[in-house]
Write the structure tokens for this entry.
Amino acid sequence: MITKNINEVAQALKEGKIAAIPTETVYGLAGNALMEDAVLNIFKTKNRPFFDPLILHIDSPEKVHLYTRNIPDKALLLMKAFWPGPLTLVLPKKANVPDIVTSGLETVAIRVPSHPVTLKLLGQLDFPIAAPSANPFGYISPTSAADVEEQLGEKIPYILDGGIAEVGVESTIVGFEDGVPIVYRLGGIGIEKLEHVIGKVNIADNSGSENIKSPGMLKKHYAPRKAMYFGDIPTLLKKYKDKTCGLLLFQNTLSGYPEDLQIVLSPSGELEEASKQLFASMRKLDNMAVDLILAEPLPNAGLGRAINDRLFRASLETDEGLSREIYKR
Ligand code: TXA
Ligand code: MG
């Protein structure tokens, strides 16, 4: 049931139930992170494998010390700069964080979201909430209450409506290995902004399936049901000329191709707008009468990198040079 009643959802979470909640990035599927049954229910509801750990959501930066220890100085700087906001930090966990949340890892992923509705909700709770994106495992993340309703509505008692997610892609995840910051997942805070605060960061290369440091970074994620291909559109159109192709484009339509088979993410060429529209546009194409979805790469800077990462991982095949570029530093 879609609701705007924060108290009602707070009550449900206190009783150990799960609920979908809005965040500035995407909607999350929330439960009391300290209650194993609630967390178990999250995994079951989205059909998520237990090896893929969840993110803890708290409502103030100071609370990070309740659940983590040995926080590197650079992590403190990042918190100061970007919390509340679309940044998740992977830090050594304290014993009170259940193993089911972290898939048995010694670290926990944690963030302070900036959505006012969810901050208010968290303010009524005396526990952190664990929340993965509120989509069936592997599918496109939801950026509206209606998106959640469409796929998980029957399985979730409450969907707290906070409007359309402003950022539109998930949080940037940063971890530390021997004190060196590593971006495990590109997301709502661009690399340039991170580096402005803490200097050079590394990016985990997710272009292959080897060396994946963050268990959720498997390829074939964020994917529509339809086959999707990521690359140069004219080349792909030639390759799939006997199919009806829906196009996902950054700024301009392709002239000479049917308008109703094309979605432009940002006519004014703004990456913020493109990222806000990204997942809704992929869902739209998935529901259109097309055989395939073809997506073009965006400029690989700022939010463009995170968008390219999502498009790459949603796709069946990508040019290797192109995918390497996304994770290059
Ligand atoms: O923006 C977001 O982060 C959204 C909203 C709801 O907050 N949440 C989200 O959660 O995207 P989810 O579960 O879809 O993605 C969490 C990612 C996974 O890729 C997981 O592997 C990684 O975080 N992760 C969680 N704990 C980790 C850990 N201890 N070490 C490395 N990666 C971790
Ligand atoms: Mg997810």
Notes: The two ends are 44 Å apart (CA to CA).
